[in-house]
Amino acid sequence: MTTALIIGNGQIGAEIATQLTQAGTTVRIATQLTQAGTTVRIATRSGGGAAGSSASTVTSTPSRALAPSTADSERSSAASAIPGSTAEAPATPAPVPTHIKADATDREQLIAAARGADVIFACAHAVYDSRVWERVLPALDSAVLDTAAELGIPVVFPESVYAFAGLDRPITESSPFAPVDAKGRIRQRLLEARAAHPATSASVIAGDLLGRTAEPKTSVVRMCITEPIAHGGRAFVPARADVAHGITVIADLAAAMIRAAEVLADVPAGTHRLLLAPASNPTLSEIAEFTHAELGSRAKRPLALPHWVIRTIGLFDRSMYEVGQLGPIWYEPCVIEPGTLAGSVPTTDWRDGVRQML
Question: If you average pLDDT over residues 298-321, what whole number do you get?
């Protein structure tokens, strides 16, 4: 791919942007230097990005990645002009994503943002409230799918295990839907709508997320385990701490979504693929024990809050209410098996994901 539109700049979208831009490294091949890179556009409602990033509105043509300086270009040309030279020239700066302003539920704005792109990575979401999901997510998905279909480009979505929460066996790419709450039923409807839509798409399922870009409000492992321990406290989990729990490192999810986009290039138009990102299945106790070991603190067993406690707290706290509705994935084993992408994308040890957060 040469150009990608990423909708959303949170923990997943930011990691995809990093991987796509950092892929543009200089490769030494005999007498010439080649560079494989992707022009990345990041669409958000604010149009803002990291310090120093460019921003434009969708009514203008998003600029391509910043070119290397004239001096760098001249040095590279001089090096490549030496017959038989294999000396490595100065590395070309990694491309810089362009940040553009677009409302992901507005089809016209999305079409303007996506025009000329080879793929859309749909990473925008809504607050952790099933009532908001019901109101926002179907329209969001519909706008993205309509845009992809009209422009004839594929779209890749990150996906959770919520639509499969009631399974009493490991989650695979052929598992039947088994939602247990409103969020799971919403996820099922979204997946069914993607499969029925004429757009070419993929949904990449991941476990609970951890890693470099993990945000405390959206990563249970960071919020309940690594952050409390790092501040001298004790881990507390809204779950049983002694059962296997599917975990995905965000970098692996991003790599799986990029690989999914490549897979979609070889499928008939209108195909939807359900794929699994790399995952491991440690217990939350293992994660807490490893975190203590990394920090050199005295190991303490996580405080495992019983389900009835979470449901009681949920009467006063919406986030805990939503967590409590998903009891099976927290109080019973939630195992994710390898899928089609196994072996074609890197799999990071969950311990390295913890180290990234620490």
Answer: 93
Residue 99 and residue 42 in contact, taking contact as beta carbons nearer than 8 Å: yes
Lowest mean pLDDT among 78-92, 235-249, 325-339: 78-92
For 164, 179, 211, 355, the CA distances from 222, given in Å and listed in that order, are: 23, 25, 9, 11
* CA neighbours closer than 13 Å in the CB half-sphere of residue 111: 11
The pLDDT score that the predictor gives to residue 346 is 83
Confidence of residue 31 (pLDDT cuts 50, 70, 90): very low
Q: How far apart are CA 15 and CA 257, in angstroms?
A: 11
Strand 272-276 to 3-7 pairing: unpaired
pLDDT value at residue 77: 35
pTM listed for this prediction: 0.85
Tokens of 14: 């930011």
CA proximity to 229, closest of 298, 283, 306: 298
pLDDT one-digit tens code per residue, 83-105: 343 444 445 556 788 999 999 98
